[in-house]
Write a structure and sequence with these properties.
With 442 residues, the protein is mostly helical. Helix content is 84%, strand content 0%. It contains 14 helices and no strands. The protein is globular and about 65 Å long. The two termini are 32 Å apart.
Length: 442
């Protein structure tokens, strides 16, 4: 059901709205974690390295889908808060048309250019073929990735975080079973991992899009909504493009870092591949909670309730730190246990790489989570220049420092040290921009 985020105690409203979002992203990340787990456990260390290597490339495509999700979600949230339902429907159809065209373009680029990109990041010969196979299949799942993200963005904008959670819970757990079936029973190798992901993403997309269509059909309007609006497209682009650029540049930075890591050999690659999936599970979960704050902020700005934005920020920090503490403790003290789930008879290099990565990064989850709550408010308010400035600062610092520190006696350890520096600097910037928002003048 649709939920009005402009009434009720902010802390209660955010917990009720964001917890299903948190659960949804956990299940969403199970797709990637399952791929790595099955590849490492049932195929081998090189297969794990190949899936991890390919994952950094897939994040570029996901960045575009995520940007469309944010653009649609923020615009629809503002219109829902203002009760402009005819324009809301037009905004959704406009976003879908734009996203479909963008998806087709990216598919063409992916089909023609993924092999060259794998060469560009110095993919080792022993994992190159499996990386290419995984990416070739993944490209065909892009329509499902795009329209699933659009659908979940719409649900979030309407204050419904429970429905997409239910869809994802079913499809992502199914993905684990199909992964194992294709790899162990049908002996499909890395291709089986990729096909399982495509099929299960397709199911979740079709369910989500069907549910959105039924939800919108029940929404009464005084006149037929136009299919397309240039003015709404411009608003959508103003939100979506900075988000796409942000995520794309982060992905490009990660690919550059992956290229540096590849120079340390398959052992370090495999350890990083497992650990970075675990790290991305946490950071992406925080990002999703930040997206929930964006919807909350956009609805309240649409309803002209600016004081609730400040209350939402404080409530968001309390909420996200409550979730951060157990994640930090688990990764810091139980890193070896969880990494062993990904690898069958791993080398000591792979295990030590993963443990060290998690122990260096996990204490700083309190800092990056604070940034992502502040970023959520900046996005919801349409303050995209400030949002991008903080994000690019993090990206540039992490990429430059990873390259520089990897050439010191620290070696690969120097790469992991770049994350906390980038996160801390960017968090300070995001907090400064938040303090300058219009809600502080009310």
């Amino acid at each position: 059901m649709n939920k009005n985020l402009t009434v009720g105690k902010p802390e209660t409203v955010l917990w009720q709205f964001c917890l299903p979002l948190f659960g949804s992203i956990l299940f969403q990340q199970l797709y990637n974690i399952a791929d790595s787990l099955v590849a490492g456990k049932f195929i081998g260390e090189n297969a794990l390295a190949a899936v991890g290597n390919s994952y950094e490339v897939t994040l570029i495509f996901i960045a575009f889908a995520f940007g469309c999700n944010i653009g649609c979600s923020v615009i629809v949230s503002q219109l829902f808060g203002a009760r402009e339902y005819t324009k809301l429907k037009t905004a959704i159809s406009t976003a879908c048309i734009f996203s479909a065209l963008l998806c087709l373009l990216l598919m063409a680029v992916g089909i023609l250019g993924c092999g060259a990109l794998l060469q560009l990041i110095h993919t080792p010969e022993e994992v190159f073929e499996d990386s290419r196979i995984y990416l070739d299949i993944y490209i065909w799942s892009l329509p499902f990735v795009f329209f699933y993200n659009i659908a979940t963005g719409i649900f979030s904008a309407l204050g419904d975080s429970r429905t997409p959670f239910l869809f994802l819970a079913v499809s992502s757990t199914s993905n684990i079973a199909v992964d194992i079936l294709f790899v162990t029973a049908f002996h499909m190798g890395v291709a089986g991992v990729a096909w399982a992901t495509l099929l299960c993403q397709g199911v979740s997309c079709l369910l989500a899009v069907s549910a959105v269509w039924l939800r919108l059909k029940k929404m009464e309007v005084s006149e037929k909504a136009p299919l397309f609006s240039l003015s709404l497209l411009n608003k959508f682009i103003l939100i979506a493009v900075p988000s796409i650029l942000q995520q794309s540049f982060i992905s490009v930075g990660n690919i550059i870092i992956q290229g540096v890591i590849n120079g340390f050999g398959p052992g370090v690659m495999a350890g990083y591949s497992a650990a970075v999936k675990l790290n991305n599970l946490v950071v992406t979960s925080f990002t999703t909670l930040g997206n929930g704050i964006s919807n909350y902020t956009a609805q309240n700005i649409g309803a002209s309730k600016l004081p609730r934005v400040k209350e939402g920020f404080r409530a968001g920090i309390r909420m996200i730190w409550t979730l951060t503490l157990p994640l930090f403790l688990f990764y810091f003290f139980a890193g070896r246990f969880v990494l062993n789930l990904f690898m069958d008879q791993p080398t000591e290099t792979a295990v030590q790489t993963g443990i060290l990565y998690l122990r260096i990064l996990s204490p700083f989850y309190f800092i990056i989570s604070t940034k992502l709550i502040a970023d959520g408010i900046l996005r919801g308010a349409g303050m995209m220049k400030q949002f991008m400035a903080a994000t690019f600062t993090d990206l540039i610092l992490r990429t430059v420092l990873a390259i520089a520190l990897s050439r010191t006696p620290l070696g690969s350890t120097g790469i992991w040290c770049a994350w906390p520096i980038g996160w801390t600097t960017a968090t300070l910037l995001s907090l400064v921009f938040y303090q300058k928002g219009p809600w502080h003048s009310k």
